[in-house]
Every structure is written in C-alpha cells, then in structure tokens.
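Example 3.2
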Amino acid sequence: MTKTSPRPLRVLAAMSGGVDSAVAAARAAEAGHDVTGVHLALSANPQSFRTGARGCCTIEDSRDARRAADVIGIPFYVWDLAERFREDVVEDFVAEYEAGRTPNPCLRCNEKIKFAALLDKALALGFDAVCTGHYATVVLNEDGSRELHRASDMAKDQSYVLGVLDEKQLAHAMFPLGDTLTTKDEIRAEAERRGLAVAKKPDSHDICFIADGDTQGFLAKRLGKAEGDIVDESGTKVGSHEGAYGFTIGQRKGLRIGHPAADGKPRYVLDISPVNNTVTVGPVEALDVTGLTAIKPRWCGDAPAGPGTYTAQLRAHGGETTVTAEPVDGELVVSFAEPVRGVAPGQAIVLYDGTRVVGSATIATTTRRTEAPV
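Structure, written as tokens:
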C-alpha cells in the first residue's frame, strides 16, 4: 500500500477558521497542489465572535480563515450551505432526540455536508479533492482502491467521525495531518512558523451549532416542555422530567430523583421511551449490552461477505472493543466479546480491521445481558 497519489491536484480546502484546517491547507499547497480555500457558512445568523472554544461558523471564524488563506497565498471563498446544514444536520439532530435516540451530528455533517454537498459542488467545478484538517489517513492500494485508516497518532485520531465515507468519497478526500506523528502543540508551532494567526486559537469542541453547550436548553426551545415520568425497572414512578429528550442512555447526573434506590446505589438511565414520554432508570449493571443491530451501514470499500471479527468504536473519543459482526438483510448484526455499557440507539458503531476502517452503521436496537432487545 502507498499513500495517496503525489501528482498535483486541484484541491478545495475546507477552512473552518481553526488551526488544523489552516495547517492542512498550507501543507497541501506546499506539496505542490493547486489549492483554493473555502469557508462554509453553516449558520443563517452567525455571531460576530466565538465563545471561547465553543461554537463555530462565526464572522470571526470566516475572517480567520480568510487571513490564513492570504498568508498561504491561495484564493479564498465563502460558500453558504446554511440551509443544507439546517436540514441535514440540525433538524436531523432534533428529530433523533425527539425519537429517543442519541445522534452524532459530526458524522452527519461529514456525510451530508463536507463529503456530499461540498464534494459534489467541488467536483462540478473541476476540483479533484476536498482537503480537511481531520486526523485520519487515506491509503491507495496497488489495484487503485482506497482505504481509510486511523491517524498515525491515536491520541488525535478522528477516523470514527469519517466512518460514513464510502470508497468513491475517499477517492476525493485528502487529510494532510493524518500521517504525521505530531502533538497538537507541534501543529500550533508549525502554524506559528508559517505566520498563521490562528496558531493559538482554541480548538472548537462539543456541538458546533450549540454555542453555549446547553444541549438540553437547545432542545427545549425546539421541542418545548413535555412533562413525563421517571420510573424504575418495575415501572414504579421515582421522579418526573420536563422532556425525555433531555436524557441519554447511561446518564447518571441530573436525574433529579427525590429519593435513593433501595440498595443506596446510583441509578442510571436505561431506556428512553418517546411513545409514553417515560425515562427508565436502574442499576449500572443493567446497562451491560451484549449485542446490537445497526441500520444504514456504509462501507469504506466492499461490504463484508459474511461474519467476521473486528474491533468496534462506539463513541468519538471512546476505546475499542472486540466484536463479531455480519451484514444481514441490509442491517449489521453485532455481538460483543465482553459486555459494554452506555450504548444508545442513534449512536454510530464504526468497525475496524486493525487500523483500517471497515464501515459504520447507526445503532437501532441493543440486547442487554438479561433483556430482550431495546
């Protein structure tokens, strides 16, 4: 296997206004590619300034991206994808929570915006590839096929949120930061050497379109208050809530249950039922999941022909766990070698064969150690 082709390409560099995407664009230009920078305006009403490390797509971010492009010496444009982002990412996020699921908007953005809407427009304009500041690696095989692999530095690896990309999209993806063993401090030092003013800018985190970090407050404004019961495993009411959408599977804090469990141990969210607006809580042991079924699988290459043993990642910053997985009738059936906790419908499961990303799917149901699928 080799790294992606060294021949000069016409590259569209997605520049968020942060340090990673700026350095990625600079490296692509330095490698001899014909690079054009583009900032995606994803908010219909952008704020003037960010709140520390929260939020994105502000006017400040756009200006930071433009200044970085000027220093690198590449053309720069702002593309308005706010309406597409609202429909495909924000509205999907709200609908998933309303349905009692826990979505990952970063995966949806990569799937629907950066490597669908943006890539489609880039190809239509004659570009060969879209470049981003993600930490992941695309490998070109001798037969011309491409694979997505983890970044060289596991501490910064972002392949989980790219697991939705198929081989056709990988053929036009460029991640200049993925194959270098450098710390974030070294990336910042490189940005400073290059004269990029974003060298010391805080990284963005959490959900970009919820700038204050208050997911429950954001959902309450969109969905309104909907009072319901918090019950234990026997169905006995132990508390109340103002919206089941404000909870996630495995949650411990913020349950506001008035009295402790009989055994005095903490209780966790076990199930969220939007049908009757009920949240079920119980002991941590009841969170043990032995298997799951996932829908809408997307493969980074050919789909597996039968059952296989892989490692799986269930959260963007989670560890790996060994699984047996098999595509069945358009779904993915997964069994865990050891029970895992905190697995929620709506989350993505990404399968790996070593460092190679096999594919991803959206968790639909889970099987617990002592229960039927939920």
